[in-house]
Design a protein that fits this description.
InterPro entries: Glutathione-S-Trfase_C-like, Glutathione-S-Trfase_C_sf, Glutathione_S-Trfase, Glutathione_S-Trfase_N, GST_C, Thioredoxin-like_sf. With 238 residues, this protein is of the alpha+beta class. The chain is built from nine helices and four strands; from the N terminus they run E-H-E-H-E-E-H-H-H-H-H-H-H. It has a four-stranded mixed β-sheet, covered by helices on one side. The chain is globular and about 50 Å long.
């Protein structure tokens, strides 16, 4: 049995999707990030960095793994699935996994901060991060023009990138003019395990369902939580 410590974020959903695809039994331990449960000593003993996701594999003697990319590799190697064993095939998967870890995730994360959460809108900064996200999406689209999946067969590389790409509207970036990326996005979204994975746990806001007004309210609430946490760490000093 695996304990998955997570929250409704792209990085968290990477792991729940992989666990569902692999059919591994797991228990969901949802952390309330607004209450800073990720900073509590019990969780820091599992992940010293105080971030989700993390897992504890009880079948391996309570072995803990943190960092979403490392968890995906661990699960793939544990099961012998979602990543080839040969050096070249494994390398192809890891290249596209690192593309997400070092590019898509960080750039979308920064776009989210300045487009959704940062109280002062700085157009040049927003344009910079949204432009880089769009560039990275173009790289994916160009590769997917001639490939069904990112690295041969469906793999952890697809899972990692898809979990972020699916949230493109939250970053303020559309997929117009990227037909191959759209095709891939929709194909993965149709997979039953992917559908189950993004509900473990479900996202708090869905732009298609809730609309931009609800997104704005959610952003304001999230910003207030961040400011409260900052005040607490500084003793409330202005």
């Amino acid at each position: 049995m695996i304990d998955l410590y997570t929250a409704p974020t792209p990085n968290g959903h990477k792991i729940s999707i992989a666990l569902e695809e692999l059919g591994l039994p797991y228990t969901l331990q949802v952390l309330d990030l607004a209450r800073h449960q990720q900073r509590e000593p019990a969780f820091l003993a599992i992940n010293p960095n105080g971030r989700i996701p993390a897992i504890v594999d009880h079948d391996a003697g309570g072995f803990a793994v943190f960092e979403s990319g490392a968890i995906l590799i661990y699960l793939a190697e544990k099961t012998g699935r979602l990543m080839p064993a040969d050096p070249q095939g494994r390398s192809r998967v890891l290249q596209w996994l690192m593309f997400q870890m070092g590019g898509v995730g960080p750039m979308m994360g920064q776009a989210n901060v300045f487009f959704r959460y940062f109280p002062d809108k700085i157009p040049a900064v927003i344009d910079r991060y949204q432009g880089e996200v769009r560039r990275l999406f173009g790289v994916l689209d160009g590769h997917l023009k001639d490939h069904e999946y990112l690295a041969g067969d469906y793999s952890i590389a697809d899972i990692a990138n898809w979990a972020w790409v699916r949230t493109h509207r939250w970053s303020g970036v559309e997929l117009d003019g990227l037909p191959h990326l759209k095709r891939w996005r929709d194909a993965l979204r149709a997979r039953p395990a992917v559908q189950r994975g993004i509900e473990q746990p479900p996202s708090k806001i869905d732009l298609a369902r809730d609309g931009d007004a609800a997104a704005q309210r959610f952003s304001q609430e999230a910003r207030a939580v961040v400011e409260m946490g900052r005040a607490g760490r500084t003793g409330g000093a202005a």
